[in-house]
Amino acid sequence: MPLHNMPQIAFGTGSKWKGQDVTDYVTNAIETGFSHIDTAQFYANEESVAAAIRETGLDRSDVFITTKWSSQAGVRESLERSLAKASWDIRAQQQLELTQVDLYLIHNPALAKDYESDWRDFEAVREAGLTKYAPCASNKIHTNHIVPSPVGASQMQKLWKIAKVKPAANQIQFHPYNYAGNKDLLAFCQQHGVVVEAYSSLSPITRYPGGPVDKPVNAAAKRLGATATQVILSWVKAKGVVIVTTSSSREHMQEYLDVGDLRALTEDEIAAIDAAGARGPPSTSAQDPRILGRNQAPKTSPTIAFFAPEANLVLYTKR
What we know:
Layout: E1 9-12, H1 23-32, E2 36-38, H2 46-56, E3 64-69, H3 75-86, E4 88-89, E5 94-95, E6 103-106, H4 115-127, H5 153-162, E7 169-173, H6 179-191, E8 195-199, H7 203-206, H8 214-224, H9 228-238, E9 242-245, H10 250-257, H11 267-278, H12 289-292
Parallel strand pairs: 1-2, 1-9, 2-3, 3-6, 7-8, 8-9
Antiparallel strand pairs: 4-5
Family: Belongs to the aldo/keto reductase family.
InterPro entries: AKR, AKR3C2/3, NAD(P)_OxRdtase_dom_sf, NADP_OxRdtase_dom
Region (Disordered): 276-297
């Protein structure tokens, strides 16, 4: 798999994995079929992510790696630190070469104090060869692409005007309950060929069970002989959005990957989930920006990533 190809589904190493050795979990994910691994400097587990990739015996070109800028140091210095950490095999206690990541994102919109200046720094990292392709913007950073912090549609438009290298991807919190609030951003990204990545897509199940979305999701699951989880991920896929998810269970990892083999949702099923999501989750105001994803708070802010013009998105990769 060429490094400029982004698989449709990524295994995330944040949230509950922060500060932990994730070698075994990432190894399981790769062996199950994931070929896109999402980490970050803030997660403090880049070394074990790299160790897992080495343990699988895969060629570097077979794995798409994303990491994120935490602003503890400059854009370039931080990335060089990440590469140095990932090059040290914590189990074998030996140095192994890792010269670049595939995607480099800004982890939080608040980290970008000056969009134009920060973007120039990312472009410089790309020019220095630390990233293989054009810059990208996102919540995370990787070396093949550079990304600014999460931004909304208006910020994207401003960035678009000043960037020498245009954004290629945007990572946002995305699920049925905040879809309505992200429509403008999604439309802008799709109009300009910017890949959208989604985290927290399973919120209707994990955070807001019993809400309006359950009915259309369960109906579709019954028709397809699938799980509710798979239906929601299929909905994300139907929106043309890349999935970032995680689990400690091989069973759930396989459940996620099997979405690639499911029959597609019908237009009526997608519309029903959209409409139910617009009603908002249970016992929560539908106007709450934290739910609608209007990106007013760092946790729900979108992320942007940029790819080289020749880069192409793999809509779904199942090993």
